[in-house]
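Feature request, filed as a ticket because there's no other form

It would be nice if the structure record came with a short human-readable summary line next to the tokens. Right now we just get the raw output. Example of a typical job, pasted below so the devs can see what we mean:
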Amino acid sequence: MRLFPSGRTATVLIACVLLAGCSGEPAPAETPRPQAPTSNPATAVPSPAPEPSADEPTPESVIATAKGETVDIYAEAGADAPDRQLSAEQVVSLPGSIPLTFLVADRSEDWVQVHLPVRPNGSTGWVRVGDVRLSATDYRIEVRITEHRLLLHRGDDVVLDVPVGVGRDEVPTPGGVYYIKELLQPPEPGGPYGAYAYGLSGYSPVLEQFAGGEGVIGIHGTNEPESVGTDASHGCIRMRDEDVTQLVEEFGLPLGTPVEVLA
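Raw output as currently delivered:
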């Protein structure tokens, strides 16, 4: 397996982890998670989106990137003790190479409220501003489940509008607000994940585990292009390979980009 340099996508590309709903049938439960590469490792980590200048429009979303491998999560701003501690190892595939990233929901002086990449979906918590680096993006993804469409917004403009496949009735794609926590590249072309796969902060509402993974929801390509535009997956959002490639290589979305799934 190889760890790929980030290029202009502002993310680290790695061998694909096991997302929920990425294939027509579950892979064997003993399928191992990918391990860190043993040769030619890339040392670059995702770089956050740049801070806006004073004369630029205010961006739609703020991103918080942990300065270390762990970050304390507080139930409310100003709390004396953390409610929990979250580590990169818990939520990303290669901690140390992919940083722990959050989408900011609110801010209060020296604190930010963030969406958490944990169960249950919709969880939030507060972190100290000093524990994270703040950046910004004017990109956001909107997924319309009933219409089987994915729209990429940049500010007030829709810059991409393409069909997608979504979860079947018994294993639905969950509605809600999520964000991109990692960008992955399968080790071989032609597999069920397609050319690229984004791991999101959300989880399947039905599958506690899938193919050895934790039921993470993803946006990815597919080797079954005929399934795009239908209810066909175990919960993931499927794109045609040429569309997910455009999303990754042309637009270069940063980690933390918001994804709103409209059920």
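Something like this underneath would help us a lot:
Residues 7-34+139-262 form a domain with the L,D-transpeptidase catalytic domain-like fold (CATH 2.40.440.10).
The chain has two domains: 7-34+139-262, 61-137.
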